[in-house]
Every structure is written in structure tokens, then in C-alpha cells.
Design brief:
Two copies of one chain form a homodimer. By secondary structure, chain A is of the alpha/beta class. Chain A has one domain: Divalent-metal-dependent TIM barrel enzymes (TIM Barrel, Alpha-Beta Barrel), CATH 3.20.20. Chain A contains twelve helices and nine strands. A nine-stranded parallel beta sheet of chain A has the order 3-2-1-9-8-7-6-5-4. Chain A is globular, with a radius of gyration of 18 Å. Chains A and B meet through loops of A and loops of B. Chains A, B: One of its GO terms (molecular function) is isomerase activity. Chains A, B: InterPro entries: IolE/XylAMocC-like, Xyl_isomerase-like_sf, Xyl_isomerase-like_TIM-brl. Chains A, B: It holds the Pfam family AP_endonuc_2. Chains A, B: This is Sugar phosphate isomerase/epimerase.
């Protein structure tokens, strides 16, 4: 297991962590100030400053990307299937332009939440079928672009509205069906927040292996959690044994960034420099 | 699958659903007014009126029980192991006195939340080991009392503070290890709220079979969920396909009550009769 205690060269910042404090260009400046080497930007943050400016800013700052957030939301009613396909192809193009190593996929929940306006359904089995079909189509496109796709299993609390792929096993089962050759073009993005509770976690990380482990995200689970979406904790403030999870992915050969992704009304209310200083300190001590 | 549309003879009321509107005796009176045949009372509600009075009130009203809530909270530090054992034995005794068909078990999360005052830990694997050990001890006691134990897998959102048995598979694996002979003394209580998201749900219900299916609970998952503990929905107001879940347990031979258990700041704020009328109507139409 790599020693993170003396520097933060393997810290990547998911830019949603400070999305309320500034635009993407300001976040990139702050990363430069704090010696942060990598980011994972969100599509809306890129769009807000323009793709070309974002590409230049990343290049000028000498930043790497640890991923691009996010593709997916594959579930919809029939009238929106074209929108789903086109939207995800654009996402691949943007990720390519930015030099991202993978697109992180939040696959979608029930169609009425995934693609608002879609006819309402309670059929989660059908939703899962639709996800696999749309993902297969996106994978064809991503392969041509040589841009790997990383399925992010989301905590079951988000099964209805964000992603009904909710365990590492379920994500890896999809990988095995759509990419049995383990081409390196399809894998998982594992965020400790979503998977820490899973009794099969360690077995599934071992099953994933290096070629399926495309991204590793960290934050913490707070008790109590006051907001189901926007009350993630800073690493060390909650109950997750983060080092054990990192040890497990590194035992498989994962040698990429530990990406910090915190959606938090609390941390969004603090100055950007304070947030980044805390991220760096916790990266050294808790991650 | 049984037809519930014309009456509510298979509706049981988990008394937490109206815990803020009255004490257990008042709830029992209200069940009589509404022709509800069964309840699942909570230990604190029984204690508040006294066990003997509760036993008499249940008997005088001709009520059945569909379970007794709840045993468990098995995780603690060493200094509280005796408390855990004694507390759970008392729970079995009370259930026996009340004529409950099973004790519902919420097994506990990390020790500091399960038994407050216990030393803090992030070791969920250790917590799970401790649960199995304490459950084995309780099972010996419950067998002598001929009182079955029903492990309730809780939604992963409660893994830290309430139960780190979070899937039906995990609960059934414990059943198989502690009761390989399928004696009928150990099984599961399945609440759609906790398990609806699980991609393995239907397979695991089939695996459980009739002798492991000791209780079936219903409510609904709301989007958005505004409170992680106390914002369960009335059946029909959320996204859960309840009928499919009931069809699956009944296909295994389950023929017991559909127990309504709603923790909801919203419904706790309404008159008891309104809540019960709504439960009965939704039982006929949505469950």
C-alpha cells in the first residue's frame, strides 16, 4: 500500500467538492495554489466556462484528470432514447478533449427521475435491462474513441432516482457480460461512500482486478446523515474504514489517484482554500 | 397470490406507525374500531403500559400478533455483552407472554451506535462477527422458549447505526450457518423498504422458502426522501412495486400478515383514525 503521509501527489479533486465556491477556472487556480495534481470535473462545470477554455485551463495548469463526471442516466421512456444516446456520445467526446482516463457513469434509476418528463415506472428490473442496452451502445462509441467507461455502483439509497446499479458485484456482472474479454474499456469507479457497507466488498474488489478498477473515490459516511444527497463527510469525520478499502484496491494493482468527492452543504459553505487544505491534511492522515 | 381487494383480514399494524398518536392501549382500541386483526408492538410501547396490561389488552381485543419489535442490537464493547444477552432474553420472554409468532431482530451496527457508550469502532467486519456470536446465544434461549427469531435485513443506509446485516442474502447466509437444519426457529423478516432495491431480491426470496419467511412488512420509498429514518411513505406514494414482492413471498408459501410499518414525521402528525383508514384503503389497492 502506498504511503500517502508525506505528500499529496495521489490526491485528485472531484470538482463538485467546491462547486459552490467558484467556477472551474477558479477551482483549477486553487488546485495550482495547493499543489493538487489532478481533478475530475463535472460536465456542467465544463459547460459553464466552455469546453475549449476548460481544455486550455487544464493544459496550462499541467493538471491530469482522474475521470470525467458523468455519463449515464440511461433510463428513459421511448421518446427520449435518442437524447440519451446523443448526450452520452457528447460526454465521450468531451472527456477525450479534456484528456480524461475514463468517463464515470451514473447509470440512472427509474426513468422519470433519470430523464425527467419520461413516463413514470416502478419497474426496476426493466430499468436495469434498459441500462445494459444503452451502455452497450455507448461502449461501442467509447471503444472507437479509446475512452474507457467506469460504471459507478451507487449506494442503494439512490436506486430510485440516480442509479439502480447498487453493488460492486452488480456492476462487475455487467462488465463481464458486455466486455468478457476484459479489454480495459469497461470497468468500475468505486467510491467508498457507496460501497463501504457491502458484505461482499472485499471479495468483489479482488474479483475486479486491476483492469476493471478504473477509479477510486473517497469521502466519509456521517452518523447521522442529515441529507440523503448532500451530507457526505470529510474523510475521518465518519465511520468508513477508508484505508482498508484503499489497501484492497491497491492489492489488485490499482495505482491511480484517490479522488476526493464530497457533496456537502457544510463544506460548500466554507472558503475554497479551507476545504482544500483540509482535503490535503486528511488525505495524508486518513486516506 | 391472495386477493386483498375486498377486505383487510391480512393487514397487521406495526404499532410504531401511530406511536405519536397514542399509547398501546389506545392503538389497540383503534384497531378494534377499524377491524384490524393483528399488530406488531414495540417493546417500549409495551413497557410504557406494562407487560401485564399489554397482554390483557391484546387478549381482550382478540388480536393476533405478527411479530414483536424488536430484539437485537447485538454489537457492543466487552463491558456491555452481559447487557446485550440479558436484554435479548427478556425480549424473548415478553414476546412469549404476548403470544408473538416471532421476535424481529434489528441486529445492530457499529457498537457505539448499537449500544451507546460502547467504545467507537469502524470495523464493520468485526461487528458482523459479533452479531453472529450473540445471535447464536439468543437462538439457544429462543429455542427453549419455542419462539422463532426473524433477522430483518435493514437498508444499507442504516449499516452504521442500526443493522449491518443489509441484504436478504446476508441474512439467509447467517440462517444457514446457525440453523442448517432449517428448524423453523430462525428466519427473516422482509420489509420492502429495506430490500426493494436489491438486484438479487427475487432469487433470495426463492432461496428463503416458506420456513425462513417469518414476516413481511410494507410501506413505500419516497423520492425525495427528506429524512433518512422518519420519512417512509404510505404504500402507493412511492416507487416500490409492492405487489411483485408480495407475489414472490406468497409463491414460496408465505400466508401470513402484510404488516404495515411506517416511520413518518408526516403520518405521525395526522389523526390515528385517518392513518388507519388510509392503511386499510392502500392495503386493498396497492399491497
Amino acid at each position: 500500500m502506498r504511503d500517502f503521509s508525506s505528500d499529496h501527489s495521489w490526491l485528485s479533486l472531484n470538482t463538485a467538492t467546491v462547486r459552490k465556491q467558484g467556477d472551474l477556472l477558479q477551482i483549477i487556480d486553487a488546485c495550482a495554489r495547493h499543489g493538487i495534481r489532478a481533478i475530475d470535473p463535472w460536465r456542467d462545470q465544463v459547460a459553464a466556462v466552455g469546453l475549449d477554455r476548460a481544455v486550455r485551463a487544464v493544459r496550462d495548469a499541467g493538471l491530469e484528470l482522474s475521470g470525467y463526471c458523468r455519463g449515464g442516466m440511461f433510463t428513459s421512456d421511448a421518446s427520449r432514447r435518442g437524447e440519451v444516446r446523443d448526450d452520452n456520445r457528447r460526454c465521450v467526446d468531451e472527456a477525450k478533449a479534456l484528456g480524461a482516463p475514463c468517463v464515470v457513469l451514473v447509470v440512472g434509476g427509474l426513468p422519470q427521475y433519470s430523464r425527467p418528463g419520461s413516463e413514470a415506472s416502478k419497474d426496476i428490473v426493466a430499468a436495469r435491462g434498459q441500462i445494459e442496452e444503452a451502455l452497450a451502445d455507448m461502449l461501442d462509441y467509447a471503444k472507437q474513441a479509446e475512452l474507457p467507461l467506469a460504471i459507478e455502483p451507487l449506494h442503494p439509497a439512490y436506486a430510485a432516482d440516480r442509479a439502480c446499479v447498487n453493488t460492486t458485484k452488480q456492476a462487475l456482472d455487467i462488465c463481464d457480460r458486455l466486455d468478457p474479454a476484459r479489454s480495459g474499456m469497461l470497468g468500475v469507479a468505486l467510491d467508498v461512500y457507496h460501497i463501504w457497507w457491502d458484505p461482499e466488498l472485499m471479495d468483489q474488489i479482488a474479483r475486479a482486478g486491476k483492469d476493471r478498477l478504473l477509479a477510486f473515490h473517497v469521502c466519509d459516511w456521517l452518523v447521522p446523515t442529515r441529507d440523503i444527497l448532500n451530507d457526505r463527510g470529510m474523510m475521518g469525520d465518519g465511520v468508513i474504514d477508508i484505508k482498508s478499502a484503499r489497501a484492497a484496491v491497491e492489492a489488485q494493482g490499482f495505482a491511480g489517484y484517490s479522488e476526493i468527492e464530497i457533496f456537502s452543504n457544510d463544506w460548500w459553505g466554507r472558503p475554497m482554500d479551507e476545504v482544500l487544505r483540509t482535503c490535503i491534511e486528511r488525505h495524508k492522515t486518513v486516506v
